[in-house]
Design the sequence.
């Protein structure tokens, strides 16, 4: 609000978190765009010439698959940091949505604020409870679904191979290879939906609370407020 | 004493040369992916093992599996297989009919308890006590259960018996279910395809006869030898896919030059079958080679996966006419609209708060 005092800068997002964030942002963009393209390729290779001269689709596929491995590694790294990093603002810590208590006052207050039901704007140095549940659904669950279905799709290339042994069970689970493709493709759309919501929320918070949340993902510092 | 009929006997009686016989054995071993050292074993099995009685039931089906089976490519393969197994009961191929014919089935079930093979073409409708498929006054469902009781193994021919095919496509008016949903306590091999490739069918039977057990199966109970890889991964047009050279419509330059049919809705990338390797009609061709996209006929639920000529047209478990991109765009649109509305709300609230709390502040 207007009558808050900017008290001091506090170091919130440590380097591993920021590195994860930007690598993830870049890789998800690459994965989404390449995936969308080779699901329905817009362009054709030039008429004439040998098929062996062009590698458009093969390259896109290569970029998608190698980015996917990096995405997976980055995700594992973030999970490690969340579980064992001992980072107050980046660990799972108090995030227990399976417990009834978690959905109590802080969540309700934040939700009421977002829905304009109250003029109060709760302040959090880390994630607020609504943001946490968004990250849980879109980033954590979304990434896990994409990783599992993605590896299952990749394992189809090499039946009986390492990945097929690890992820081959997914196909009978979802019914068919077609369903698997559909799930992977449909879940991919979670990320642009998240992207829009995320960017909006960040910019809005920066304007409304002036905690410099936007630049905090680069500098790591957020501004502490006092009413 | 009852004379045990082996293949060799039938074989000699028919005047087929041994040379042709050995050629067939090699062909089968190759298509099953067996080592050359196992060829003598196939030969031995065919010459010495008693012919296995096969009861071939027809449920809700179109007989395309039988039509495919009797056209096995090797000149004498179909003949051999049909003689090698003792096809004692098959509504379509047998000369007998009526009650006498039903007697044969019962007789085989008694005489060869636990030794005969049950081959099922088509599936069974469960709705209204199975009245939608009656054979000789008995519902096919009960006949299937009765015949499977003492069978050594069950072969589910075709997509109907394996996965349900068109009969159990939405809305599935007769409540048709694949065989493995009814028979639970027998080894079952699924041989999907609409129809399956003839050589695949003879290959499965030969394996059963030679080794006395089902071939190695994958997670959907299909023989790995034939359903191990996708059409796409062994397609001869794959280089055009990798190059991004696509047929855009059925009368363009790409069609004439035989480019990849991916954009024409080819289901090759999601279909497991041997069409691109064994091919059809004596190895003559297969759909993609003839310029038509694969429709994915050997995949579970292929009728519910949207139009044949659009790629990933529908998400079967969401709704009809629901391409993933369509659903995704709507979701993104809804999110953007929601954020825009929220932004307006925020602006109003901020303006209100500012004027409420600081009425005297400088403008």
Sequence:
């Amino acid at each position: 609000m207007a009558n808050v005092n900017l008290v001091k800068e506090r170091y919130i997002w440590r380097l591993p978190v920021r590195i994860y964030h930007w690598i993830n942002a870049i890789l998800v963009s690459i994965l989404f765009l390449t995936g969308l393209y080779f699901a329905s390729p817009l362009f054709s290779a030039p008429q004439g010439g040998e098929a062996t001269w062009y590698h458009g689709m093969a390259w896109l596929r290569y970029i998608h698959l190698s980015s996917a491995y990096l995405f997976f590694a980055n995700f594992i790294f973030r999970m490690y940091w969340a579980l064992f990093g001992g980072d107050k603002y980046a660990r799972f810590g108090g995030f227990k949505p399976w417990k009834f208590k978690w959905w109590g006052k802080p969540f309700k207050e934040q939700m009421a604020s977002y829905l304009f039901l109250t003029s109060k704007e709760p302040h959090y140095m880390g994630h607020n409870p609504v943001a946490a549940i968004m990250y849980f659904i879109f980033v954590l669950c979304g990434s896990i679904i994409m990783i599992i279905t993605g590896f299952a799709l990749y394992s189809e290339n090499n039946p009986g191979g390492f990945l097929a042994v690890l992820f081959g069970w997914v196909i009978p689970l979802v019914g068919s290879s077609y369903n698997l493709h559909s799930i992977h493709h449909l879940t991919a759309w979670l990320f642009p939906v998240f992207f829009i919501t995320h960017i909006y929320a960040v910019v809005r918070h920066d304007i409304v609370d002036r905690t410099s949340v936007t630049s905090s993902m680069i500098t790591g510092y957020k501004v502490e407020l006092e009413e | 004493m009852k004379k045990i009929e082996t293949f060799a006997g039938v074989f000699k009686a028919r005047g087929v040369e041994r040379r042709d016989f050995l050629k067939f054995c090699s062909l089968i071993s190759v298509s099953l992916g067996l080592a050359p050292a196992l060829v003598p074993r196939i030969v031995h099995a065919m010459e010495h093992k008693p012919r296995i009685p096969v009861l071939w039931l027809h449920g809700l089906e179109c007989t395309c599996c039988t039509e495919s089976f009797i056209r096995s490519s090797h000149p004498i393969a179909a003949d051999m297989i049909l003689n090698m197994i003792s096809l004692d009961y098959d509504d379509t191929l047998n000369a007998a009919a009526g009650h006498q014919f039903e007697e044969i089935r019962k007789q085989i079930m008694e005489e060869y308890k636990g030794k005969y093979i049950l081959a099922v073409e088509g599936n069974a409708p469960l709705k209204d006590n199975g009245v939608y498929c009656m054979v000789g006054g008995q519902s096919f469902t009960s006949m299937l259960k009765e015949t499977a009781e003492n069978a050594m193994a069950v072969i589910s021919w075709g997509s109907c018996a394996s996965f349900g095919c068109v009969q159990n496509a939405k809305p599935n008016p007769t409540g048709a279910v694949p065989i493995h949903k009814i028979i639970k306590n027998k080894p079952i091999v699924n041989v999907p395809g609409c129809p399956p490739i003839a050589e695949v069918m003879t290959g499965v039977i030969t394996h059963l006869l030679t080794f006395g057990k089902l071939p190695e199966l994958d997670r959907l109970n299909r023989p790995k030898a034939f359903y191990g890889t996708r059409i796409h991964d062994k397609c001869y047009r794959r280089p055009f896919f990798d190059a991004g050279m696509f047929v855009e419509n059925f009368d363009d330059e790409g069609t004439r030059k035989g480019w990849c049919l991916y954009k024409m809705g080819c289901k090759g990338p999601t279909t497991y079958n041997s069409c691109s390797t064994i091919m059809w009609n004596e190895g003559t061709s297969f759909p993609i080679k003839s310029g038509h996209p694969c429709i994915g006929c050997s995949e579970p639920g292929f009728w519910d996966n949207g139009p044949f000529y659009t790629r990933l047209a529908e998400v079967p478990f969401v709704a009809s006419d629901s391409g993933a991109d369509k659903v995704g765009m709507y979701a993104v649109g809804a999110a953007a609209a929601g954020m825009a509305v929220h932004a307006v709300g925020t602006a109003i609230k901020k303006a209100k708060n500012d004027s409420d709390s600081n009425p005297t502040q400088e403008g």
